[in-house]
Amino acid sequence: MAKFIDISPAEEIVLRDPENKRELHGIFNMKCVFIFQNKLAEMKINKDTLQKVDMLALCLFSAVNASEEMELSYSDAAVLSKRMAPSSGAEIIRMFNESLMNSLDEERQEEIKKIMDRLAMNLSL
Q1: How many Cβ atoms sit within 10 Å of the Cβ of residue 44?
Q2: What's residue 124's pLDDT?
Q3: Mind listing the pLDDT tens digit for each residue in 30-77?
Q4: How far apart are CA 52 and CA 7, in angstroms?
Q5: Which pTM does this prediction carry?
Q6: Domain edges within the chain
Q7: What is the CA radius of gyration of the chain?
Q8: Using an 8 Å Cβ cutoff, are 72 and 35 in contact?
Q9: Most CB within 10 Å of its CB: which of 26, 58, 71, 95?
Q10: Strand, helix or coil at 94?
């Protein structure tokens, strides 16, 4: 018996950067998750050291580089994340988190939720 899968479209974003007068295109798809995981591995980050990472910069880096329209270095993503309003940053992290959750099993989802809660608590201090 065939299993039917309804395809959920990937979320696309356009970030308007008025300071540099440019637009950055990003997408939250499986390639974005792969880029995110590779960058964490490259930085030797695990669940215990994740709080040391600029999560917004990592999400920006992953989404923009997944779009294939342009490249963004991690250092440029970090600079952009520091200039961004908290509401904009929270929206980007929320969108990334939703796309990530859709790709994980329940056990991994709970683990990620706990990590994101810890990060949110650190950001609010």
Answers
A1: 7
A2: 47
A3: 899 899 989 989 998 877 787 777 889 999 999 999 998 889 999 999
A4: 35
A5: 0.77
A6: 23-124
A7: 15
A8: no
A9: 26
A10: helix
Residues in the chain: 125
* Ramachandran sector of residue 44 (left: φ over 0; alpha: ψ -120 to 50; beta: rest): left
Query: pLDDT tens digits, residue range 10-30?
Result: 889 999 988 889 999 999 988
**For residue 31, with 0-12 CB atoms within 10 Å meaning exposed, 13-18 middle and 19 or more buried, which class applies?**
middle
Joined together, the tokens standing for residue 36 give 């995110």
Name the residue among 78, 35, 117 with its Cα closest to residue 26: 35
Q: How far apart are CA 114 and CA 2, in angstroms?
A: 36
Nearest C-alpha neighbor of 61 from the set 87, 105, 92, 97: 92
